[in-house]
Amino acid sequence: MDFNDTPEEANFRKEVSDWLKENVKKIPEAEDTSENSSLARARAWMQIKHESGWACLHWPKEYGGRDATAMERVIYSQEESKYRLPNGFYEIGQGMAGPVMMMYATEEQKEKFLPPMANGKEIWCQLFSEPGAGSDLAGIKTKSELDGDTWTVNGQKVWTSGAHYSDYGILITRSDFSAPKHKGLTYFFLDMKSPGIEIRPIKQINGGANFNEVYFNDVKIPDSQRLGEVGEGWGVALTTLMNERLAVGDAGGVDFKEIFEFTKTQDFNGDVAVKNDAVREKLADWYCEYSGLKYTKMRRVSALSKGETPGPEASITKIVSANKMQDIANFGMDLIDSSSIVPDQSFGSALQAGLLGAPLLRIAGGTDEILRNIIAEQVLGMPQDIRPDKGVPFNEIPSGEKN
């Protein structure tokens, strides 16, 4: 591995750094801590990026991007991560829906929908998971039926991030219940203001409500908004999920450096915590995980720099980082003791956010169990799990439901 930038990469990094330093200050101040205020700031930042040619770097220029290389995209992300920016509203659209539209939509649809996605005027969500089909996505039951050139959709989706403020969504449905479960799926995009869509926010333990249940009651979708062939939606969904691996990366929040500095000042049995052997043992474990993640990501960067495609090893990043964040937050709150329950602007609040948010990160973008399977099968070469439902018509798979 070569951790150093090439001369061209170094020049690009300086260009990015200089631009960010000058333009981050243009983001309007938050009026309050509400979601509406955060969304307004995110729209403003996306507009600033788009006007200067820094939005959707990897997209073609004709759709609002920059035609940047994968390595340039990594460098930009590295430099942008040095700032606290109002991101989080556009990852699904720009990181997942956009690339899928480029592969499967008509040219007219690309020209209509991609530029507003790139400049931040329109936000997209992902309508995949269901109450009985999350990790096993191919088990979805939301039904789509074709009549003429219009589809009617009925069913329920859940854990749909941003559905309550999104303009459009990407949707996978079951159009043939007699086909095996990975067949008979059909994929669409749709207007989230369509008649028959009901959105119910889900209140989270941390007080937020950024994902939702979405109900479809005789929702009409033109066949022209189908992506891919009828019954071949699983292939389109896999394309989306591969892009999700890039859009949903490692967990943010409290990490080794923050907890290490904190233990230097926090009292523990009459002395600073960092001098305690048990504390130092935990710090050593987290440092090893922190370093391992650092070099795993650098391995991906090195592959991109050489024009290679990173492999399934990327799954390691999220599974380790989310569990690490949860462990650090749990330990830090124990160290603070009873004062950790008081919400304020101190390090304690960051620990609270990490403890309550980490379980979500261990589910979003692939659960721990799914990622372990990917690592076992595609990285370590272990045999696949036995699939008793393979090749069985979906409506003949035992489900435990009463007829």
Describe the SSE topology.
Elements: H1 7-23, H2 35-51, H3 70-80, H4 91-104, H5 107-118, E1 124-127, E2 143-147, E3 150-161, E4 168-174, E5 185-191, E6 197-202, E7 211-222, E8 226-227, H6 233-247, H7 256-263, E9 267-268, E10 271-272, H8 277-305, H9 314-336, H10 347-361, H11 368-379
What does it look like?
The strands form 3 sheets. Strands 1-4-5-8 form a 4-stranded mixed sheet. A 4-stranded antiparallel sheet has the order 2-3-7-6, with no helix packed on it. The mean pLDDT is 88. A hairpin with an 8-residue loop joins strand 6 (197-202) and strand 7 (211-222). The termini are far apart. The chain is globular, with a radius of gyration of 23 Å. The chain is an alpha+beta fold and 403 residues long. Helix 4 (91-104) packs antiparallel against helix 6 (233-247) and helix 8 (277-305) packs antiparallel against helix 9. The chain contains 11 helices and 10 strands. It folds into 3 domains: 7-87; 124-242, Butyryl-CoA Dehydrogenase, subunit A, domain 2 (Beta Barrel), CATH 2.40.110.10; 249-363, Butyryl-CoA Dehydrogenase, subunit A, domain 3 (Up-down Bundle).
**Morphology call:** globular
CATH architecture of the largest domain: Beta Barrel
What is the number of beta strands?
10
The CATH class designation of the largest domain is: Mainly Beta
What is the overall number of helices? 11
Average the pLDDT over all residues and give the rounded result: 88
- Could you describe the largest sheet, including whether it forms a barrel? 4 strands, mixed
Number of domains: 3
By CATH's scheme, which homologous superfamily of the largest domain applies? Butyryl-CoA Dehydrogenase, subunit A, domain 2
- The largest beta-sheet arranges its strands as 1-4-5-8
Runs in which pLDDT lies below 50 for 5 or more consecutive residues are: none
User: How far is it from the N-terminal to the C-terminal residue, by CA?
Assistant: 58 Å
CATH topology-level name of the largest domain: Butyryl-CoA Dehydrogenase, subunit A, domain 2
The helix/strand class is alpha+beta
Per DSSP, what share of the residues sits in E-state strands of 2 or more residues? 5-15%
Helix amount: 40-55%
